[in-house]
Amino acid sequence: MLSQAMNVLHMHQKVTLMVNRYEIFADNGGEPGPLVAFVEQKRLAFKEQVTVYTDATKNQVLAGFRARKVIDLGSGYDVLDGAGQPIGLFRKDFGKSLTNSTWHLDLANAPTATGRERNQGIAILRRIWGFLPLVNNVPFPFRYHFDFARDGQPVFSVDKKTWVRDHYLIQIADPHIDRRAVIAQAVAVDALQSR
Question: pTM for the complete prediction?
């Protein structure tokens, strides 16, 4: 079960033909422990809506997010609790993301947390990679990392830990931030990054 005391989470992505599947685990001494969330994102959805479940049975909804508009270049995504009530909003900053992917996460009673790619050089190389004729269908070979901060203070980070498989380490510095919103944003950083 997801707890506010969890400051480290592991997220693993599995790509299937029709969905991107994410498993989020509690930390167990630096390794993935018990499963605390399960996500399936349908590929090529007309209007993005992602549900976060408590486990792979998909019997209980933990949270989710949905696009405010069909074309989402800057509109944003509502983060919802298990009952479908809003708990926050995140959006990609389209202008700033042209050179360095930038996300903004807004939650009630807290200033905006802004997340950016940690390495500007990798951010630029990742953009050029897709235009190179011989490699444009080859997955980007570098890991990328996002740091979210609020008023200069770290809130959480999403670090890709593996080269081939999508395994991420989520480290939470703000003890008060809603873990459901962190999971939603971490999934979005991977699933929506190229949009």
Answer: 0.86
